Amino acid sequence: MDLKQLRKIIDATDEKLVKAYLERIETVKSVGEYKLKHGINLEHADREKEVIEKVTSCITDADAKTAVALLYKHIIWQSKLLQSRQGRDKKTCPLDDVAITSANKTEGLSIACQGVSGAYSEIAARKIFRNPSITFSDRFKEVFEKVKSGQAEFGVLPIENSTAGSVNEVYDLLTEYGLYVCYSEKLSLHHLLLGTKDASPDDVKTVYSHPQALYQCHKYLDAKGYEQVKTLNTAMAAEFVMQRNDKSLAAIGSERCAQLYSLKVLDDDIQQVKNNYTRFIVVSDKKQSFSAVNRLSLIVSLEHTEGSLSKLLSLLAAYDVNIEKLESRPIPERPFEFMFYFDLEVRPENDMHGLFNDIGLYLKDMIFLGAYHENNING
Predict the structure, then answer these.
(1) Whole-prediction pTM value?
(2) Alpha-carbon torsion 369, 370, 371, 373, what sign?
(3) Nearest 5°: phi and psi at 367?
């Protein structure tokens, strides 16, 4: 038999499979109606085990046996999903109450950033907003406090770097203060070694910067043998070097830092990964997006049962929703249990209402962080 003939056999077999599966689905729905009417729990682990053992008992080939067992686990999962929809009120979709605004096009909005003038957060804020009125704070927490109290209309914060990973403190503060992400930008970073006017790279002994900037440049710094000192912000490091006016001291920062603090660029593009970017988010006390939503962020905790994460991922795949980011964090008050950060791509063709109607079946808790537009920019 040639390939064409073999494919015809597969097509014919698929027709039989689909017909049989549709018959099974109708029976599954009838079982669901019966369970609902008589108050019987949908979960029946012994029955599930019995079905899989029965359909695989006569299979001798190990690979085929595994394949059929995996198939029936998925079939049983789909059956429980179908039954769970029967008699269940539809869940609301968190995207429904997100307002589409053009707030970032308004002149002179009050924006809170961490650091001092010249920080990458300020650079991002000036790219996102028109002539913003920026106030600076020493810590991320203070940015959240300003937005929550109404002292600032929006806050701009780094949340993820392509080299150093997530800024977990910002995620924690999002949940603590109940603010929402309403916009996101990827800012390309070019780290410079900045020193006093009379300095050269050979004069430098100690380099100051934010921990993530130091990490992103550690190969260069290690090769030079520089001592590395952490600061709260790259711009603060530049300001410190300017104030000390000591050619043995240098900072890692931006071109704007060099201009603001009258420092000399001793070396440029010193990060080990040249395609280096940081995601900055805009936070608000209102559910809004500056443009059409294309990204959704959630924190979820799952039922502590076998396969709960796998089932959630299967559900996202079934709804053709792309996962942009998935990261786990321990839950401090629940030993050996984890929460998960999800960033999901949102496309017009995605049935997000259907997804959120089903997703609660696998979640213990869910925190909505925002539905917003993410844009890519070059810094």
Answers:
(1) 0.81
(2) negative
(3) -115, 120
